[in-house]
Amino acid sequence: SLLYRDEGKIGEAINFLENVIKNIPDKPEPMLYLGSFYEEKEEFNKAEKVFKKALIIDPKNIELHFRLGVVYDKLDKKEAAIESMKTVINLDPHNANALNYVGYIYAELGINLDEAERLIKEALKYSPDDGYITDSLGWVYYKKGHYKDALKLLKKAADLVPDDPTILEHLGDVYLKTNDKKKALMFYERSLLKREKDKADIEKKIQELK
C-alpha cells in the first residue's frame, strides 16, 4: 500500500486495503494505513470510523489514538481531539507530538494557556530542536501577550523550519503586535507564497496592511 501512496494512486490503495481488511478483519495495521489514506484524501469522517474500528481490536495502540486525535481536530471536534491526545500521553508520557498537540489546541482556543505552556515545554524536553513545537511555545507566549518572548521563539522556529506557512504567519502576527508593519507584511506575503490552500485569511491580513 505504501507503493500506491508513492505513485499517487490513493484510490487503488484504498480498494486494496479494504479487500485486505475483509480477508483479515482482526488486524489493526491495514486499518491504520486505510485511515491514513482517507486523511490524505481529506475524507475525515471515513478516517474516524476506520480508526475507531481499529481501536476496538487494539485499544492501546498509540499511533491509532494519535491519528484519531488529528482527525478529530480536522473535523473541528476539539474536545475529542484533546481526549485522544491525552490518551496517547497516558500510554506514552514522553510523546512530544501529543504533548505539543494538546498545548497547541489550547493556544489556538485561547484557553488553559499556563497548562499549554507546561505541556509544550515538556514536549521540548524530548524534542528540543523541533521547529513546530518551538512555534507552539512561541504561539502560547503570543496569546499571553508576551511578544518579546514570542518573537524570539518564532524566529528560532522559522530557522528550524524555514518555509512553513503557519510559522511565517505567526511571525507576521507578532511583528504586527510590535508595530513593525513592514516586517509583518513581508512575513504574511512569504506565508501566502508557500500556501496551496487556506489563503483567504492571510490575503485579508495582507490587504489590511496595504
Task: Please give a handful of descriptors for the protein shown.
mainly alpha
Q: Could you characterize the architecture of this molecule?
A:
The protein has 210 residues and is mostly helical. It has a domain at 1-92: Tetratricopeptide repeat domain (Serine Threonine Protein Phosphatase 5, Tetratricopeptide repeat, Alpha Horseshoe), CATH 1.25.40.10. The protein has helices spanning 2-6, 10-23, 28-40, 44-57, 62-74, 78-91, 96-109, 113-126, 131-144, 147-160, 165-177, 181-193, 200-209. 38% of the residues are buried.
Short description:
The protein contains 13 helices and no strands. The chain has helices at residues 2-6, 10-23, 28-40, 44-57, 62-74, 78-91, 96-109, 113-126, 131-144, 147-160, 165-177, 181-193, 200-209. α5 (62-74) runs antiparallel to α6 and α11 packs antiparallel against α12 (181-193).
